[in-house]
Amino acid sequence: MVWFGVFFLFLYFRSYFFITANKGLEFDQTLFQTVANQLLHGRTLYNDIWASKPPMIYVVGMINHYLPYRILEFLLGVLTVFNIVSIAGNWLKKWWQVLAVLILFLTLFYNGLLYGRGGYTEEYGLQFLILSITFLLKFHQNEQKKQLLFAGIFAATATLFKEPFVFSIIPWWLFLVFTYNFKKWIPFVWGGLLGLLPFTFYLLFTGGVGGFLKYINYTSAYSKFLDLNLMQKLSIGLNKYLQIFEPIGSFAAFLPLLIFFAFLLPSTNKKLCLVIASQFVVELLSCCVSGYTFGHYFLQMIFSYSIVSVVGVVSLTEFLQQRRFPFVNTALLIFAVVFSYQNLNSFQQNGSKENPTLLAKPFEKTIEKYIPTGASVYIDDPDLASFYLRNKYYTNSYIPIPVFHFFVIQDDYAQVRFNIFKKTLIERPNQFIIQSSETLGLTNKYKDIKAFLLEKYEKIYDSKIENKGLIIWRLK
Question: Which of 331, 53, 83, 8 is nearest to 216 (CA)?
């Protein structure tokens, strides 16, 4: 067992470091960290900072500010590996079957098509969901209520990273309801409420309740932005689901269907099989129903997919063995070797993407020459947003980075957002403003902002670097 542990940790190290080594964060993660930096400078979430995500991703950003680069993400990944091994044992009794779950999970989860460069809400949310399921299954084994309390806390935490994780939790809550009486499963609910309590107090204390309700309204408008009906969104999402498996074989998308054979075997725990299969179905639908094709959305279902697929393959093998089909084990071994090889090979194909940090590199010396480390800056170009982190800049602006959906999503409070954005630029001026030729729409769109810049700021740099215009303004 010691060597088994060493081996699956090696798999994790290989997966994590292959995809993250020597690569900067992408745009979304830069935005998360920048908002976290605003919080550390005394701003309040959903009140005087516009945020397009639930709160926990920004809490993680605040913690990351004081830790070595990505160490928290790495440690949570190690914990997740151990939790997966613990969880998988509830369906699979042989070590190689559990190892198969781990191989499948790691090679899909840390694949460049989904994981990108990591740090997404889905990554952290899934890790806390897995932690919740770990405690829930421990309760199922020993019925200690404190285990269920922790399961509820971590389940709530997962939803505070991304709301759709509530759908992942529902099958497990129903499992508790139909397996135990009310007094035994109610600690799970209390734990969930306890997990939501700190955020509730934060909103009440900072006066951010109204801002959070506007955030909810915005997310609803964002989901409707594509102007597609439900069936069109599902079709787009399912097509994306199939594309995920193209590097390793499209047949892999259908492996979860083999869970059907688990219900034909007397030796399987059919209730737990139903729960994990239900979790996979609701997560798949949750990933597909948005209509967007962002690969990281599908990180949510990789855990349930991995368990359902391996349980399905193992169940099919046992089903055929009971009917005395020859060479079943040999065929399964060949399949596992080929499948694992293709999985690992897919890293080489999908692990490289254009690095946002490299996009900013030509501007590095110029920006560092004119703007000191730690200054208050508004950066009006997503491609240059990495300087917030690289040079420890912070911003007084209502939005830290001009994300496209801030301007194009026309919900009930869109004009309010625009007005607050302009107001904060004027009333809480930054020491510097960085613009580029690609994002001068800010001053073109808002004539009063252009007038404000000309009155309150002086232009200290205006030139082209690699065919991209760069302008730096300094507060007079």
Answer: 53
Question: Is the full-model pTM beyond 0.90?
Answer: no
The alpha-helical segments, DSSP class H, found in 112-181 are 112-115, 121-142, 145-159, 165-179
Three-state SS at 49 = strand
> Nearest Cα to 121, choosing from 35, 232, 217, 226?
35
Torsion of CA 204, 207, 210, 213, to 10 degrees: -50
Q: Are 384 and 34 in contact (CB under 8 A)?
A: no
Q: What is the C-alpha separation between 132 and 322, in angstroms, rounded?
A: 36
**Six-digit token pair at 53?**
């995500």
Widest Cα–Cα separation across the chain: 86
Dihedral angle sign, alpha carbons of residues 73, 78, 82, 87: positive
Which element (helix H / strand E) includes 426? helix 414-427
Per-residue pLDDT in tens (0 to 9) along the chain, 476 residues: 545 555 666 566 656 665 555 455 677 888 888 888 889 888 899 988 888 899 999 999 999 888 887 788 888 988 998 899 999 999 998 888 888 898 889 888 887 788 877 889 999 999 999 999 999 999 999 888 899 999 999 999 999 999 999 999 999 999 999 999 998 999 999 999 999 999 999 999 998 888 888 888 888 777 777 778 888 888 998 998 988 887 666 778 888 998 998 888 887 788 999 999 999 999 999 999 888 888 899 999 999 999 999 999 888 888 877 776 666 565 666 566 556 555 555 544 444 444 555 556 778 888 889 999 889 998 887 778 778 877 888 888 888 777 766 666 777 777 888 888 888 888 889 999 988 765 555 655 566 677 778 888 998 998 876 667 788 999 98
Residue 119 corresponds to which amino acid?
A: G
Number of neighbouring beta carbons within 10 Å of residue 193: 12
The answer to whether the beta carbons of residues 129 and 158 sit under 8 Å apart is yes
Distance of CA 415 to the CA centre of its chain: 29
Q: How far is the C-alpha of 87 from the C-alpha of 476, rounded, in Å? A: 60
Cα 253 to Cα 250: distance, rounded to the nearest angstrom: 6
Whether 338 and 249 have beta carbons less than 8 Å apart is answered as no
Show the CA angle centred on residue 54, arms to residues 49 and 56, nearest 5°.
Answer: 95
